[in-house]
Amino acid sequence: MKELQAFVEALGEKKYRAAQLFSWMYSKGAESFDEMTDISKEFREVLASSARLDTVKLGRKSVSPTDGTTKFLFQLNDGLMIESVLIPAPDPDSTVEEEDETDANPPADKRLTLCVSTQVGCPLDCKFCATGTMGFLRNLTAGEIVDQVLQAQRFADRRITNLVYMGMGEPMLNYDDVMKSIDIITDDRSLNIGFRHVTVSTAGYADRIRQMADEGRKVKLALSLHSLDSEKRTQLMPITKKFSVETLIEALEYYYRKTHRRPTFEYIPFEGYNDTDEDVKRFVRLSKRIPCKVNIIPFHSIAFTGISGFGATLRPSPRDQMERFAQALRKANITVMIRGSSGEDIEAACGQLAVEEGKKRKSRQTPRTRRADS
Ligand code: SAH
User: Fold this and answer.
1) pTM for the structure as a whole
2) Does the C-beta of 118 come closer than 6 Å to ligand 1?
3) pLDDT digits (tens, 9 = 90+) for 12-35
4) CB hemisphere CA count around 253 (13 angstroms)
């Protein structure tokens, strides 16, 4: 809001205009300045010539015939593409029993969760992730993050109740704009989504986890863990070289002490790699230090990216092994949810649609490169 106030003042208007603009943009969802009827025509014209409302344009979308999950491909003003996923129910971060649910998560049939992107591409190079294969192109602005919500809401014609920062990119590497987008989305003059209905998922930036705890936005935190074995996690997620598993766990303990929000651990079981009894034991030890919720995510193959090396050797655990793993954790009183295959039929895993679209465009633009590649 402060930035908006500075912006209207720079255009020679009174501060209160910022509140009007804020409400038109984020509460009433105006698509043009002309709709802002309590603002003078002259100022609307000034606004139209100095600013734009839309930052992302809806491109392709695909709706899953099985569960209604909708994947949006958005084009940014510079032509780059990102994706968001709208999930009717349940919230992929919700678990059956929630400790802090004075929370009142909306009932499943009223829940509408959006998974937003925070970067175009990602620099982290996690070996199982499609977005990682694109490399890093740029950070999204807070406006581009919020606009994904506004546009998805317009499309759904229903209020989005839950938000997960689990789309393309690493939220902690775009910290300021991600936090700014959270401040806008949770503002009661805007979309008014409660902090407890917002989840930020990170590959593991311990310093930012602590900063978030100190800043007091009590959002839910999810850590993409995938292994508690340092060596294996480093192989899967090179970021572990910077922040070790132990450093991450300490940061999560700190976050839990400050916010009383139980962290969620995201875990993709890979056959014979991180789904063994030894991995269960590690989790049990961890649960003695910090109350855990584990979200088991079935691996979506990224073979279509043409990946080679270690990543190409990863296989999803078979369903029965995944169930056994989950059962063993539950026996130790760990809350476990196995994520449904939401949107599997529409390529809804991180980065899949955007990477495919990027490939298609490239092949349209540079057929010679394609021949050289194939
Ligand atoms: N960078 C953030 C958010 C983006 S990834 C993070 O790492 O948490 C969102 C989630 O999707 C993460 O838990 C990630 O591990 C998971 N993911 C990425 N690629 C996947 C794939 N191919 N199959 C299943 N889950 C995947």
Assistant:
1) 0.90
2) no
3) 898 889 999 988 888 888 888 999
4) 11
